[in-house]
Amino acid sequence: MLWRKEGWRLGAAVGRALLPNQGQGWKKTSAALCSVVRGAASYAASYSTSSSSACHETFGLTEMQVEFREVARSFALNELAPHSAKWDETKHFPVDTLKQAAELGFGGIYCQEEYGGTGLGREDAAVIFEALAYGDISFTAYLTIHNMNCFVLDTFGTQQQKEKYLQRMTCMELLSSYCLTEPNSGSDAASLETSAVKQEDGSYVLNGAKAFISGAGTSDVYIVMARTDPGADKAKGITCFVVEKDQEGVSFGKPEKKLGWNSQPTCVVSFDDVVVPAENRVGEEGEGFKIAMMGLDGGRINIATCSVGGAAFALDSAREYTSSRKQFGKPLDKFQNTQFKLADCATSLAASRLMVRRAARALDAKIASATAECAMAKRFATDSCFDIANTCLQLHGGYGYLMDYPAERIVRDLRVHSILEGTNEIMRVIIAREMDRQKV
Amino acid sequence: MRVLVGVKRVIDYAAKIRVKPDGSGVDKANVKMSMNPFCEIAVEEAVSLKEKGLAKEVVAVSMGPQASQDTIRTALAMGADRGIHVVTDKELQPLAVANMFKSLVEKEDPKIVLLGKQAIDDDCNQTGQILAAKLNWSQGTFASSVVVGDDQEKVVVTREVDDGLETVSLKLPAVITTDLRLNEPRYATLPNIMKAKKKKIDKVTPEDLGVDVTPQIEVLHVKEPEARSGGVVVESVDELVDKLKNEAGVL
């Protein structure tokens, strides 16, 4: 559906002037025009149907998943890819485009239909997010975080919370942020210090700060983990709350300057005597850490899928570049070094995709090993895909270092995936712990 | 009012076209196929007629092998109500397609048949015209605007012709073929993709429709366009003019 874009229209208009038997010709003309119009920074036009590896990207998917992927891919190529370089450069948070994505059902993919969700599974979501991330990693990453928040309310929220918040979150009338990490509590998440003190009327008063919050300042709703019982064992004293942006005592730090993920804002969220009514408590007191971790199992797959989509784009860019760039009298992709590098990237990409989809399936099936599988997939795919992007940058030579080509942006955007939703070191902790549980 | 809309499965506009080595056609194996872009515009127009309350039912029709059903599903996900799949593995040319449409029109009794102005694979640009002639209906080809009268007796069609826009008023029933600027097709939403699975697709064969689809045109040879040869840098304006005159023959 790329011909929706102005570039296409322009191309087709030119095509009309050509002889009828040059049908294929005008398609190419328009694709060429697209790239002229959008500049070298946007490659998507020429990649819309190329597959990034020798593997069949839709093999093993259900008919329905293939169709979901098709829509997500069209959306990514038409609405995301042409803008991603600009959004990165200008640090623009494309809220309108997020809302447009929600209209297609991407806002609450694995939430119940009753509250505006799409009612699909994690594997479906993995397929969709991968296709979207091909167009813009940072946009899709925020969308996945929002989906995770919807999941939290869909699974643990009261009917009132679902009506008041979830219903408006799935269509992205309300944007949301996930608040677990604090300035002094990162990998050791259970050591969080934000306090929620219960009042006589049942409400809670929140004090503390949350750091590295994606979407903060723009998001309307914050899913906040806070300590309600300082006496309890670390993880057991934590409770989950819904906090609104405009509540008194909620304030935001300056926007963080980041290596990547620039099309979404990140900053500190502070809570100073914020009164949260009892009905905004999600789940029971002390359930917060469990909720946070359950959200993160899925969040890890989501981030891993964003890595796969981004790496697929990087690989396609590198293939395009190495086939057209000539040195020593021949295109770069005629050198065995290039071919071997591309072959390794394709293999690594295929392996990452397999692990991520399998972990998603494990989560859908709710099997006992799902947590370990999610951690493994996240660790493997985010590291491997970063390496793919970095290799692809190297294949671009000096041009890879320039912002005129997308390679460096993919590297910058993917780098953080080895850090957030639990660092890859924490993933190893989780995997080892799960292995311990099943001692031979 | 019922609207019949044609949806052709073609090689995706962005796919790389490979001509078969023997020159008998293009290679369709392992190539991404999707709905002809002009047919997508036709579906969008039909669905929006329904949304405006002007059409009661939108029926998407595709003709071809089993896989054409995917194309009908896409139309159903965009909002068509049901599908008709004319199943055949034989090569179909515009005359046969128009004959089969005529047979379907007699069964379905639509007031408007919406088709793409041409398909991006064979670029024939014939089916709509042949069909209108066969049915003895009005035709509005290359439509960039379609306005159906409230009384549903007439439709005003703006046509994109070479020297501008031509506006015609047609008596219904009519065949309308869509041009690029008519509308911007919507994305199918995830819930609508799921709902489309439950919509009905009737299967018929050319024989059921009483149409002989034997091709009337023989394709002798298919070849790739000439590869672009490199340019030359001219030294002076005189040399440029000389080349334009004597080599290119354009002056």
Number of strands of chain B: 11
CATH architecture of one domain in chain A: Up-down Bundle
For the largest beta sheet of chain B, what order do the strands appear in spatially?
9-8-7-10-6-1-4-5-11
> Could you tell me how far the N terminus lies from the C terminus of chain A, measured between alpha carbons in angstroms?
53 Å
CATH class of one domain in chain A: Mainly Alpha
End-to-end Cα distance of chain B, whole Å, is 56 Å
Oligomer: heterodimer
| SSE arrangement of chain A, N to C | HHHHHHHHEEEEEEEEHEEHHHH
Which stretches of chain A of 5+ consecutive residues score pLDDT under 50? 1-50
Stated plainly, the CATH topology of chain B is called Rossmann fold
Radius of gyration of chain B: 21 Å
Gyration radius of chain A, in Å: 23 Å
Tell me the count of domains of chain B: 1
Largest sheet of chain B: 9 strands, mixed
Class by alpha and beta content of chain A: alpha+beta
CATH superfamily of one domain in chain A: Butyryl-CoA Dehydrogenase, subunit A, domain 3
What is the strand content of chain B?
25-35%
CATH topology heading of one domain in chain A: Butyryl-CoA Dehydrogenase, subunit A, domain 3
Characterize the structure shown:
The complex is a heterodimer of chains A (440) and B (251). Chain A is α+β, with helices and mostly antiparallel strands and 440 residues long. Among the domains of chain A are: 114 residues, Butyryl-CoA Dehydrogenase, subunit A, domain 2 (Beta Barrel), CATH 2.40.110; 142 residues, Butyryl-CoA Dehydrogenase, subunit A, domain 3, CATH 1.20.140. Chain A has a four-stranded mixed sheet. In chain A, strand 9 and strand 10 form a beta hairpin. In chain A, helix 9 runs antiparallel to helix 10. The N terminus of chain A is likely disordered. Chain B has 251 residues and is an alpha/beta fold. Chain B has a single domain, classed as Rossmann fold, CATH 3.40.50. Chain B is built from six helices and eleven strands. Chain B is globular and about 65 Å long. Chains A and B meet through helix 1, helix 2 and helix 4 of A and helix 2 and helix 5 of B.
